[in-house]
Specification:
single chain, alpha/beta, four-stranded mixed sheet, two-stranded antiparallel sheet
Length: about 130
């Protein structure tokens, strides 16, 4: 059972923090937008002594992997930011990815994702 994390983690974007255990996605167009989202996040994580990981691969099974992270993330003191290029991935894959993230980074704001589907519910549709 997930443990409720209460400590806030700074994302490197001024005024933006989220609770530990947050799993969110962000979408970008081009290297400059990606850098604007990724570099502050990594800089703040490294500055605070956190372990940081970047992954740049995605495939048709990505939504299943992302969905399973929702079982994992709330149990640990971490923040997962998954960034996806709007110009690189097929629209149907991006829609599936969106459904797997409870939070969405839109510009420099974190929002509750109204399209989020919990893991068990999403698995039942596959």
């Amino acid at each position: 059972m997930p443990v409720k994390m209460t400590k806030l983690v700074k994302l490197g974007i001024p005024g933006l923090s989220v609770p530990q255990g947050t799993h969110m996605c962000g979408f970008f167009r081009g290297a400059e937008q990606r850098a604007d989202l990724m570099f502050p996040y990594l800089h703040e994580g490294l500055r605070s002594g956190a372990k940081c990981l970047c992954a740049f691969e995605a495939n048709d099974r990505q939504a299943i992997s992302e969905c399973e992270l929702n079982r994992f993330a709330p149990c640990y003191p971490l923040v997962l930011l998954c960034l996806y290029s709007l110009g690189h991935f097929r629209g149907d894959l991006l829609i599936d990815i969106l459904k797997t993230h409870p939070k969405v980074l839109m510009g420099f704001t974190v929002l509750d994702n109204p399209y989020y589907v919990p893991p068990d519910e999403l698995a039942a549709t596959r």
